[in-house]
Amino acid sequence: MAKKKKEKAVDLKPTNITDEQLKAIQEIISPINNIQMELGRIESRKHILCHNVVELQDKLQVVQKELEDQYGTVNINIQTGEINYDVEANS
Known about the structure:
By secondary structure, the chain is mainly alpha-helical. It is 58% helix and 4% strand. A two-stranded antiparallel sheet has the order 1-2. It is rod-shaped and about 115 Å long.
């Protein structure tokens, strides 16, 4: 008896989604990707700005120390430069 060759089964499952389905997915994913990229840019900018604030705060502390050494503990109006001596602290 000769062996019978098995016939290959034909797979009838679809191999691709429809063009309309693909377009619908792409129309959703594209703006998501754009938003995520923009958020990344914003976070990067935020990080840089936070570092700038820390640097400026350090510089402010140096100037405040210099002013305190020269004038003592006082309140200074940053608009006018006027020194307001605390009467109770200096008594």
